[in-house]
Design a protein that fits this description.
Largest sheet of chain B: 3 strands, antiparallel
Oligomer: heterodimer
Strand content of chain B: under 5%
Distance between the termini of chain B: 101 Å
Number of helices of chain B: 30
Largest sheet of chain A: 5 strands, antiparallel
Helix content of chain B: 55-70%
Number of strands of chain A: 31
Strand content of chain A: 35-45%
Strand order of the largest sheet of chain A: 24-25-26-28-27
Distance between the termini of chain A: 6 Å
Chain lengths: 379, 656
């Protein structure tokens, strides 16, 4: 984590996503997409961190990320996902869901498909039509699931004009994020601190399971599923707390970890190294959580001059039966169970809205209109 | 009224005819609205077709520049860092910190300038290109002024080092020499290049004597005839005493050596050693600080402050800061020679050389089209404790006044408002009220944006604004029929009145549809239920339904009764509650005890006796009354039957 490149881009960044690598590829990530918000004109942009020739003195590649192409986006970009190598799905504050297609030959983006009234308060066709922001989108080729402030869940299929399935009034409050649990199940988080699991095989508008934080009904803003253990889920809340859930048992989180001082906007397990977790927050911080057990020898290497904290799980309410196979995120043994936290950004000011990790690369975007990229996460 | 510092500039709005029609205008925080009215100036009755547009006139146009946004964002971080510099730090460490901050600001300006330059070159439209070029020159002037202020006010260089700093300053800003040098050295025969002597002269003018010597040696190689005098000139250049940063010699020593060297130069001039080469002779005159010879190089000097620094270098290298203003004024006069009048930039630099900080800031405020520069420079100088004595006759001090102006400009921008918040935070007197006024006016199109605004308010304990934002969101949600959301927002705002209103909507929906919506929320109210009586009732009433559903009849019955006896239930809802009691009364086993049944009866009688008597009755009313009367009759019957059963049961239980 020596070099982290910052670039000011004259737009507040709401989402960043790495382009997925082709299966079996040995390359490292080199292209990512960003979406902006709260500008007079918002854009979806593609950036490349590919080498531009200049070898620096240490033999590494010097230079920051370069803009490949961009396209106007109507409304704030609320969420962004790569559908496949070429297609990007964007959720808009206007309630519209758009699929953009990247043409690598002439470096342009175009609109491939659009569901203009995916989310709304008063229906299209009615004279008092009012749209509702689409807050989250998740893709699992060929399916696209979107959620919104209207509490609606849509299931789209690429190349289908209409929604395949819509659950109206799925939630009485705002749905903030969605993720696939295991097909055809999805998991949503809402603004009153609940996780709901929906099974598309079931008819009706009821979730198959509800999990919730007790008491305070703290809104949850983000959710990510463990890449290998599909029952382990991490969520981030308005109070900056990180919660780890085991959806197979109990209706309460397995552990609650005191983290940021303000809203946690995104949480991501590292896709290929899930002992590592990354979070970012409104308080302007970006954290790297390391739950791999060999902490002592690593610590000397890792936190030179950076603020590092050790913590142990504060609340645990799970009786562990099969300790050996369980993920370190669920373990409750206080001796083994230590997490090292490293703060990745040098000085904190405005909100870090988004982050994404792929291989050794991390990208994040802020309200201070900067995009930070590092290519050496585990150096 | 305060005297005007200059004629205000006239901005013409295309399409608006102020000659014929009266104008209407209104001030906003950073903008002004202008439109034509249909009133005529001369009261003629004919209607002149007026302009159909309302114009928004922005004062702080630079805020809207895409490239300058980077300047605003990047400098915001530096600004925050500066505010956090420990007040305890004193002396050297504090000064070096402040100099570092100043350099950071300047490097951001330079980065912006370079990017703007690239864009100006790449611009396809010439008008666009011109606009960018003019921006580049503005940025370059800002950096020039800032750098000088850094040397004079922050670094506070003493005699000796002062001149070295000024030389660096000139070298940094008169940089054509580098491309010229590359051009000359790249040619086949440098000393025969057209600009060879120009280059050598510029190098001497900038005090880059080592480089000048190397150039001279090329001339010596090329023409053996002048090799001798070139070597003499080279030796003079090499021996010129200068203060180097690592040197420990005192100023007096330096002055002595310098005097000695100066006399040596003088001798060569009198001996006419360089008479054969006019170029070398003019170089010698320059090195003697001859004003006439210097002024001959006006073209190469390009501006008066270069002239000033060169003049000082070769006539008074150990100039004291307090003497600067004398040399500055006379250099300006000599350089312009009465041919042209000084421009705003000249006046600003002159004011800086006079150590008149307030004049610098004032002139900059008038000359520059944005508040960024003055706000940040003033703030930095204030941290150097240079501005404390100065108070304005309005508002608070100058630093705060300028920061407020700048931050208000940011708030007028649709997306830079977040930066403005931190600037307001560091305005101790009026920052808070300004923030309060601005933050409420931010349009909230998504909940996410609302959450960000709320976080800003909550961090600063701005309870009034928090309540108002939550209320706006709750209202929006009600309008969109999102009752769950509305209730969440009113709970967050701790707005009891609104929570009551939303709870009523829930209850009304229940009465109409016979089932509750948004159970996920109502079932999880927890302690938030206590916010308002109506909300408590809603929560408890739903609990009753849940108990009933779970067939916990006894618990359900006593909860239902307590809702009425404790007066939590609104009277208008009592009939519904009593109706809900009907199935419980009709259960096979006795649920309401005799005591409870009496209570229920009292409630029913209470309700019916206080019913308003309808004077006039239409058919619909009558029909309603009919249903109502039937209901009451049924209730009375059930209650009586239940009472009978309860008395028997209780009597027999006691008996057994």
């Amino acid at each position: 984590m020596e070099e982290i490149y910052a670039k000011f881009v004259s737009q507040k960044i709401s989402k960043t996503r790495w382009r997925p690598l082709p299966p079996g590829s040995l390359q490292t990530a080199e292209t990512f997409a960003t979406g902006s918000w709260d500008n007079e004109e918002n854009y979806i942009s593609l950036w490349s961190i590919g080498d531009f020739g200049n070898l620096d003195s240490d033999g590494g590649f010097e230079g920051d990320h370069q803009l490949l192409c961009d396209i106007r986006h109507h409304g704030d970009v609320m969420d962004l996902q790569f559908f496949d190598q070429e297609r990007i799905v964007a959720a808009s504050s206007t309630g519209c869901v758009t699929v953009f297609l990247h043409h690598p030959n002439n470096q342009t983006l175009s609109v491939n498909q659009q569901w203009t009234t995916a989310h709304y308060h008063t229906g299209p066709g009615s004279p008092s039509y009012s749209s509702a922001p689409c807050t989250g989108v998740v893709c699992n080729n060929p399916e696209i699931v979107t959620v919104g402030e209207d509490g609606r869940i849509n299931l789209f299929r690429a190349d289908h004009k209409e929604a395949v399935r819509t659950i109206d009034n799925a939630d009485s409050s705002t749905l903030h994020a969605v993720t696939f649990l295991r097909t055809p199940e999805i998991l949503t988080v809402n603004s009153i601190g609940q996780l709901k699991i929906w099974d598309f095989r079931q008819q009706g508008n009821e979730p198959s399971q509800i999990l919730s934080l007790t008491g305070d009904r703290v809104p949850l803003h983000c959710v990510d599923r463990h890449p290998n253990q599909q029952h382990v889920v991490a969520t981030g809340g308005q109070d900056g707390m990180l919660s780890i859930w085991d959806v197979r048992q109990g209706t309460m989180p397995v552990s609650l970890l005191k983290a940021h001082e303000a809203e946690m906007w995104e949480v991501h397990f590292h896709p290929s190294n899930p002992e590592h977790l990354f979070t970012c927050s409104e308080d302007g911080s970006l954290w790297h959580w390391d739950a791999s057990t060999d902490v002592p020898e690593k610590s000397s290497l890792f936190h030179q001059g950076r603020s590092s904290t050790f913590l142990s799980h504060s609340i645990s309410n799970q009786a562990n039966v099969h300790q050996s196979v369980i993920s370190s995120w669920l373990s409750t043994d206080p001796a083994k169970d230590r997490i090292e936290i490293t703060s990745l950004l040098p000085s904190r000011s405005l909100s870090v809205n988004t982050l994404d990790v792929l291989g050794p690369c991390l990208v994040c975007g802020t309200d201070a209109e900067a995009i930070y990229v590092t290519r050496h996460l585990f150096s | 009224m305060e005297e005007l510092d200059g004629e205000p500039t006239v901005t013409l709005i295309p399409g608006v005819n102020s000659k014929k029609n009266q104008m209407y205008f209104d001030w906003g925080p950073g903008e002004m609205l202008v439109c034509e009215t249909s009133f005529n100036k001369k009261e003629k009755s004919e209607m002149v077709p007026s302009c159909p547009f309302i114009y928004i006139i922005r004062k702080d146009v630079d805020v809207y520049s895409q490239i300058l946004r980077k300047l605003f964002n990047e400098s915001h971080g530096i600004f925050l860092g500066l505010q956090r510099i420990d007040e305890e730090l004193t002396g050297k460490s504090r000064k070096s910190q402040l100099v570092r901050v100043s350099k950071n600001y300047r490097s951001v300006i330079r980065a912006c300038m370079e990017e703007m330059h690239q864009v100006a070159i790449a611009a396809k439209d010439p008008a666009n290109g011109r606009q960018f070029s003019s921006q580049v020159s503005i940025l370059s002037a800002m950096e020039l002024i800032w750098n000088l202020c850094e040397i004079l006010f922050i670094e506070v260089a003493p005699a000796g080092p002062l001149l070295l700093h000024l030389l660096d300053w000139v070298r940094l800003h008169v940089c054509e020499v580098d491309s010229l040098s590359a051009d000359v050295l790249g040619s086949e025969n440098p000393s025969k290049h057209d600009s060879f002597w120009n280059l050598v002269t510029i190098l001497v003018l900038q005090g880059r004597l080592d480089e000048a010597r190397q150039m001279l040696s090329k001339e010596a190689d090329a023409s053996p005839a002048s090799a001798g005098i070139c070597r003499i000139m080279g030796d003079l250049m090499r021996t010129m005493p200068i203060l180097s940063p690592g040197n420990t010699q005192t100023l007096t020593e330096l002055e002595l050596k310098w005097q000695h060297w100066h006399e040596e130069c003088e001798r060569y001039l009198q001996d006419s050693t360089f008479a054969t080469s006019p170029h070398l002779e003019s170089l010698l005159k320059i090195m003697l600080g001859d004003e006439a010879a210097l002024l001959e190089q006006k073209e190469l000097l390009s501006n008066w402050y270069h002239f000033l620094v060169t003049r000082l270098l070769y006539s008074n290298p150990t100039v004291k800061p307090i003497d600067l203003h004398y040399y500055a004024q006379s250099s300006l006069d000599l350089f312009l020679g009465g041919e042209s009048s000084p421009e705003p930039l000249d006046n600003i630099l002159l004011a800086a050389f006079e150590f008149d900080i307030h004049q610098v800031i004032k002139e900059c405020s008038i000359a520059l089209s944005n508040w960024w520069f003055v706000a940040h420079l003033t703030d930095l100088l204030d941290h150097c404790k240079l501005l404390q004595s100065h108070n304005l006759y309005f508002g608070s001090n100058m630093r705060e006044f300028l920061l407020l102006e700048y931050a208000s400009g940011l708030f007028a921008h649709p997306s830079l408002w977040q930066l403005g918040v931190d600037y307001f935070d560091y305005c101790p007197e009026l920052g808070r009220v300004s923030l309060e006024l601005h933050i409420e006016r931010i349009p909230l199109n998504t909940e996410q944006k609302a959450l960000k605004v709320l976080r800003i308010c909550e961090q600063r304990q701005m309870t009034e604004q928090v309540r108002s934002i939550c209320k706006i969101l709750a209202m929006k949600a009600v309008r969109n029929n999102r009752l769950g959301s509305a209730l969440s927002w009113s709970i967050r705002a701790k707005d009891a009145a609104f929570a009551t209103l939303v709870s009523d909507r829930f209850l009304r929906d229940y009465c109409e549809r016979g089932c509750f919506s948004d159970l996920d929320l109502i079932d999880n109210l927890g302690p938030a239920m206590m916010l308002s009586d109506r909300l408590t009732f809603l929560g408890k009433y739903r609990e009753f339904h849940r108990m009933y559903g779970e067939k916990r009849f006894a618990d359900a019955a006593s909860l239902l009764l307590s809702l009425m006896t404790s007066r939590i239930a609104p009277r208008s809802f009592w009939m519904t509650l009593l109706t809900d009691a009907l199935p419980l009364l009709e259960q096979k086993q006795v649920i309401f005890s005799a005591e409870q049944t009496y209570e229920l009866m009292r409630c029913l009688e209470d309700l019916t006796s206080r019913r308003p008597v309808h004077g006039e009755s239409d058919t619909e009313q009558l029909q309603d009354d009919d249903i109502e009367t039937t209901k009451v009759e049924m209730l009375r019957l059930s209650l009586a039957r239940n009472l009978a059963r309860a008395i028997i049961r209780e009597g027999s239980l006691e008996g057994s």
